[in-house]
Amino acid sequence: MLQKEELKKVDAVLDDAAGQRGILIAVLQRVQEKLGYLPEEAMQIISERLALSLTNVYGVASFYKHFHFKPRGRNIVKVCTGTACHVRGATSVLTEMENKFGIKEGETTKDLSVTLETVGCVGCCALAPVVTVNDKDLYGELTPKMVDDIIEMVRSEHGTRV
Ligand code: FES
Fold first, then answer.
1. Does the beta carbon of 142 sit less than 6 angstroms from any atom of ligand 1?
2. pTM as predicted
3. pLDDT at 82 (0 to 100)
4. Of 9, 24, 34, 157, which sits with the fewest C-beta atoms within 10 Å of its C-beta?
C-alpha cells in the first residue's frame, strides 16, 4: 500500500500530464523516478487517470527493461556479461557477487541496500571484466581481490550489512 506522500507524488505527476496525449511512457518514467519503481497501486492509478486499461499500461511498461515493478536497492551493482567480459571471467565475478550478497542476479537484498543485475556491453571491453555501481562508477580488469573490495565498498559506504 502506498504511503500518503507517495500517493501525492503520483498525483502530482498525473496532474502535470493532464490533457496531454501519448504521455504514458513519460508518466511511467516520472513515477519511477519519484518512487524508485512502479508499484501495482501506482500502475492502477495511472491506468485510471489516463483512461487506459491496466493491461495496456503493464504491456507498455513491461516492454522496456528500464521499468521495474519491485523495489530496487539503494545501490545498483551491474556485472557486464557482454562477450568480452564473458570471455574474461564475468561468470565468476557474478557468482562471487551472488554468494557474497546472498542474492541471485536480478534480486535485491532484504534490507534494500543492493540490487544485483547483469548488463550487456557497457562499451569498455578493453577493461573486461567490468562492473558498474549506480551507473556512475566503473571498475575494470577485475581480479577476485577487486571484486571483494567492491563488495566491501558498497557495504561500508552505505552502512550495508548483507
Ligand atoms: S563486453 Fe563488457 S564492456 Fe564490453
1. no
2. 0.79
3. 97
4. 157
- CA–centroid distance, 17 to ligand 1, in Å, is 38
100 Cα–ligand 1 center, Å: 23
pLDDT confidence bin for 157, thresholds 50/70/90: low
Q: At what angle do helices 144-157 and 90-101 cross, to 10 degrees?
A: 40
- Side by side, which strands form the sheet with 131-133? 114-119, 75-80, 131-133, 137-139
Neighbours of 145 (CB within 10 A): 8
85, 131, 139: which to mutate for ligand 1, most atoms within 8 A of CB?
85
Q: What is the dihedral sign for C-alpha 6, 11, 31, 157?
A: negative
Annotation: CATH topology of 75-157: Glutaredoxin (3.40.30)
